[in-house]
Design a protein that fits this description.
The protein is mostly beta strands and about 325 residues long. It has two domains: about 1-235, Jelly Rolls (Sandwich), CATH 2.60.120; about 245-320, Roll (Endonuclease I-creI). The protein is built from three helices and 22 strands. The protein has helices spanning about 115, 255-275, 280-290, and strands at about 1-5, 15, 20-25, 30-35, 65-75, 80-90, 95-100, 120-125, 140, 145-150, 150-160, 165, 170, 175, 190, 200-210, 220, 225-230, 240-245, 245-255, 295-300, 310-315. Helix 2 (about 255-275) crosses helix 3. The longest helix has 20 residues, at about 255-275. The radius of gyration is 19 Å and the shape is globular.
Length: about 325
Amino acid sequence: MQRIPREEARKYAFNWQDAPLLRVQCGESFEIETYDASTGYFKSPDDKAIPARRPGFDRTPPQANPIGGPIWLEGAERGDTLVVSIEDILVDDYSWIAIGPRRGPLGDSTRWPELSSDYTTKIFRHTTGPSQTNRDGTLHFSERISWPITPFVGTLGVAPDREVTTSIDGQGEWGGNLDIRDAAPGNRIFIPVFHPGALFYLGDVHASQGDTEFTGTAAETKATVRLRLEVMKGKRTPWMRIEKPDSIVSVFAARPLEVAVETASINLIDWLITDYGFSATDAYCLVSACPDFRINVYQMCKIAKLSYVAGAEIPKKYLG
């Protein structure tokens, strides 16, 4: 199986000028060994998120969220849709979260000075599950609190049309740092293609995350991701879409949040009309009346120029 080793998965931009690290056929499984968002800096509670100490934080924007790629998919062309199937994510034996002054919405808090006066790094221990791996393992938030490891890919996408966009704050219809917890094993992700070969990148795995990633970091970890790529010829997808076993999700990112929610919902309506035979009236009314229609707010953290990421989701049982 082809693989991008971790030391080579250290790009910090989605750049259409990069030479491909792998060339794969449609349906071929391959692996990317990813770094965590800090490129390995956070190893213990003593490693604080002080910018002057962090490698790459003398750049603007900082070098964070390393990604592996690009991967060239044979047969993919501009105007197609890339289909990304995540087959497996095996995370490292720990993850971390880091908070501190001027980080996140409470980085200037006067109500709780401990959040804004000093830097804090928490290390979460991972223990294996019945499979003797972290695939069904447990994340230990503290001695008292734990939950199942629920990994997903935080940053993924293809090289954008003509610009070069960073992996820390780049977002667009082509993907980017979106922190969508549904970019997970068993799901398929649809992304429009802008260049021959698609030029796909992936990195920034999280062991778990709550809706909005409120502090700006979640359970950040290293991982090995196994996936395969396919292509839908001649079909252009508006923004990212996700197909789960039991539902479909239309994704959009914007500020303010209501623009992301409205556009994700409109794109879902378009999906229902175009691919599932709904009339415009029925699709419009379904997302308003159906009790199982959901809006997921995946990422809504106040960091740099990141937009807020929303997903409009409807169960497949309503699609006929």
